[in-house]
Amino acid sequence: MEVFRLIFSPIEVNTYILSDDSGQCAVIDCGCYNRTELERLTDFVSGKKLKPVLLLNTHCHLDHIFGNMMFLEKYNLGAYCHKDEEVNRNDSVHIASVFGMKMDMPPEPAGLIEEGSIVSFGNTKLRALFVPGHSSGSLAFYNEKAKIVFTGDALFAGSIGRTDLKGGDYETLINSIKEKLFTLPPDTIVYPGHGDPTTIENEMRTNPYFN
To answer: What is the mean pLDDT of residues 41-65?
Structure first.
């Protein structure tokens, strides 16, 4: 499996494109803020000769779902997320206006994912890990074979997600990271929702929230 990262919107969210030798690909957190950014994504996908078949949301804060409607219109693919993210999806247009931004109402999810759910594209399977705390329904997506995990805004390089938004809770987030992420193999590569990749080992050893 290959992992590609594109950074979108004024909030600089990481959108990940995952591909394997089947020619199919999955997208995690389509953060395209406008049509120009969507074109960057679609040009990248077509340039790699990939076929999108799956759209995943780690959670539904506005920056992670900016592009869901445009993605649906382009590829006829709705997003999969956790049921507890419905409040964030419904609030996203209002929250965007608070920040002086505009967005269309995101479409209904194509389906719901919970702890332990397996989602797949091509020859690749991802296991959903329930990691609430940054938001009520935050998910991480783990591939054991490749030793990679996409953590959304739960865990960053040297930091953790904020917990002062609706559905956030500091102790819940700390426990989620310890119980669901820090139990993964130490050499697992962490692909966060913002910023650069890191590893589980590095965060266990140096992240100031755990040392």
So the answer is: 98
